Amino acid sequence: MTRPLRIAPSILSADFARLGAEVQAIAEAGADYVHVDVMDGHFVPNISFGAPVMKAVRGLTDKIFDVHLMIAPVDPYLTDFAKAGADIITVHAEAGPHLHRSLQAIRSLGRKAGVALNPATPVSVIQHVIDDCDLVLIMSVNPGFGGQSFIPESLTKIRQAKALIGGRDIDLEVDGGVTADNAAAIVAAGANVLVAGSAIYAGNDPKTYGNRIRAIRDAASIRA
Ligand SMILES: O=C(CO)[C@H](O)[C@H](O)COP(=O)(O)O
Ligand SMILES: [Fe+2]
């Protein structure tokens, strides 16, 4: 079964001074999801924003809010993000010792549960929680910053994650260094949700967003 392709612009690369307008702009430009990168300066070496900021822009569009939590501990904040309007909440497998509990907590809040893997973390780490996941996120850069280059070895991990998922109803997302140039290879490896921050928001000119989203979507639709 081929899963629908989803393009998820990351607002980490938005102009934060105009965050609401930047969210509306990508929604109008054809984004499927709004990817929200939450960083704590502890799990990753950068701080972005938290649930109150996300809540402030949530009402501006009906798009799916795809929240990528790069925070540890993560469990104490799941309710805040659910209340702030997250549709998908993704936690890192490396963020704590009780991944199964975190995934179950997200589902019990009525949200889709995602699990993210850092570049050095093998796919086998999620083998025993795969039926508790609605989304698997393969990080194709070390998390913490936008604008980094795609790590080519990620393609092997995407293939492995796709094999683990098999026929299950689980999305496979890739995040970090995604561009129109590598989108076909990423989708050919098995991914169906592509996060892109700098490739869409570079220059922060809303007039360019539609073409950039379309370029990634068209490239991904061709498949490598
Ligand atoms: O999770 C992230 C970083 O930790 C971001 O989602 C990711 O880096 C997107 O930005 P870019 O497309 O510029 O790499
Ligand atoms: Fe992300």
From TrEMBL:
Q: Identify the enzyme class.
A: isomerase
Please provide, alphabetically and separated by semicolons, the GO molecular function terms listed in this UniProt record: D-ribulose-phosphate 3-epimerase activity; metal ion binding
Q: Which residues cross the membrane?
A: none
UniProt keyword terms in alphabetical order: Carbohydrate metabolism, Cobalt, Isomerase, Manganese, Metal-binding, Zinc
Pathway assignment: Carbohydrate degradation
- Free-text function comment from the UniProt entry: Catalyzes the reversible epimerization of D-ribulose 5-phosphate to D-xylulose 5-phosphate.
Q: What is this protein called?
A: Ribulose-phosphate 3-epimerase
Instruction: Quote the gene name from the UniProt entry.
Output: rpe
